[in-house]
């Protein structure tokens, strides 16, 4: 049923807030994401092994879809 489904966007665009959409969306800090990707590439190139955690923050804009 429709009540069992939630839709969440992942790009944080302003259009998600339009009244006709009112979409719940997550906005990722793109600079932090790029920095994390570069860090992972550098670790790979330096042949650093073992677990490595990266935490990225997402900022939600709550709409009516979730």
How would you describe what is shown here?
The protein has 66 residues and is of the alpha+beta class. It has one domain (2-61). 24% of the residues lie in helices and 17% in strands. It is built from 1 helix and 3 strands; from the N terminus they run ββαβ. It has one helix at residues 30-45; strands spanning 8-9, 24-28, 58-61. A 3-stranded mixed β-sheet has the order 1-2-3.
Task: Please outline what is shown here.
With about 70 residues, this protein is an alpha+beta fold. It has one helix at about 30-45; strands at about 10, 25-30, 60.
**How many helices does DSSP assign?**
1
Q: Strand tally, please?
A: 3
* Helix proportion range: 10-25%
Q: Compute the separation of the termini in Å.
A: 15 Å
Rounded to the nearest angstrom, the radius of gyration is 17 Å
Mean pLDDT: 83
Poorly predicted runs of 5 or more residues: none
Which outline best applies?
A: elongated
Largest sheet: 3 strands, mixed
Order of helices and strands: EEHE
The percent range for strand residues is: 15-25%
Side-by-side strand order of the widest sheet: 1-2-3
Tag the structure with descriptive keywords:
17% strand, three-stranded mixed beta sheet, 66 residues, 1 helix, alpha+beta
What are the SSEs and their pairings?
Elements lengths: L7 E2 L14 E5 L1 H16 L12 E4 L5
Parallel strand pairs: 1-2
Antiparallel strand pairs: 2-3
């Amino acid at each position: 049923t429709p009540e069992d489904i939630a839709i969440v966007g992942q790009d944080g665009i302003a259009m998600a807030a339009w009244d006709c959409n009112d979409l719940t969306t997550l906005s990722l800090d793109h600079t932090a994401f790029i920095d994390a990707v570069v860090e992972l590439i550098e670790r790979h190139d330096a042949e650093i092994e073992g677990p490595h955690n990266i935490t990225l923050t997402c900022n939600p804009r709550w709409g009516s879809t979730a």
